[in-house]
């Protein structure tokens, strides 16, 4: 066996870009490393709060995510994903910024699933807040908006009252 390398950390296959959010990330959540049966490397994208990623998107946010992706690639991960589905709008920019596969959002699955359905059937998307899922997100991952139905969790009262969500701001 030949060993070489110029990295600080080893053994991480998947890098995960995480929005800057301070709420419980229970096992099973992408922001909790114990959710995976293999090592993952999380990179908190400083300044990319849920508010700034979903509601007040500017070019500076894309720059923050690109730098985060480049940092993960430099640490040696072999693929990158994200903790926030709203990052679908950055898919193309992230792919162009690094030399490893990027799966910015689970919304990448929508075109695939849609092709498995009959012509008149649509894919259901459940999101944190349906008001902020836009054409820009769809374009980022190649979604035909006529093929989807969107529901937001913001309107689900039982979620608002759950102990997990007590520290989240619902406006």
What does this entry look like structurally?
The structure is a single chain. By secondary structure, the chain is of the alpha/beta class. Helix content is 28%, strand content 16%. The protein contains six helices and six strands; from the N terminus they run ββααβαβαβαβα. The protein has a four-stranded parallel beta sheet, with helices on one face. A two-stranded parallel ribbon has the order 5-6. α5 links the parallel β5 (123-127) and β6 (148-152). The radius of gyration is 17 Å and the shape is globular. It starts with 13 loop residues before the first strand and ends in a 10-residue tail after the last helix. The model has no long low-confidence stretch (mean pLDDT 83).
Write the layout of secondary structure elements.
Layout: E1 14-19, E2 40-45, H1 50-54, H2 59-75, E3 79-82, H3 91-97, E4 102-103, H4 109-115, E5 123-127, H5 135-141, E6 148-152, H6 157-161
Parallel strand pairs: 1-2, 1-3, 3-4, 5-6
The gist of it:
This protein is of the alpha/beta class and 171 residues long. The protein has helices at 50-54, 59-75, 91-97, 109-115, 135-141, 157-161; strands spanning 14-19, 40-45, 79-82, 102-103, 123-127, 148-152.
């Amino acid at each position: 066996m030949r060993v070489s390398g110029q990295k600080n950390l080893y053994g991480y296959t998947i890098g995960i870009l995480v929005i800057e959010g301070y709420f419980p990330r229970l096992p099973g959540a992408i922001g909790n490393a114990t959710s995976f049966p293999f090592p993952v490397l999380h990179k908190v994208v400083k300044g990319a709060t849920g508010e700034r990623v979903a509601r007040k998107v500017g070019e500076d946010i894309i720059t923050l995510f690109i730098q985060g992706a480049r940092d993960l690639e430099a640490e040696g991960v072999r693929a990158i994903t994200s903790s926030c589905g709203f990052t679908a709008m950055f898919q193309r920019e992230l792919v162009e910024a690094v030399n490893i596969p990027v799966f910015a959002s689970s919304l990448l699955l929508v075109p695939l699933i849609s092709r498995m359905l009959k012509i008149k059937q649509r894919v259901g998307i459940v999101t944190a807040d349906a008001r902020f899922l836009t054409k820009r997100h769809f374009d980022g991952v190649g979604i035909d908006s006529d093929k989807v139905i969107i529901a937001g969790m913001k309107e689900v009262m039982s979620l608002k009252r759950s102990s997990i969500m007590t520290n989240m701001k619902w406006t």
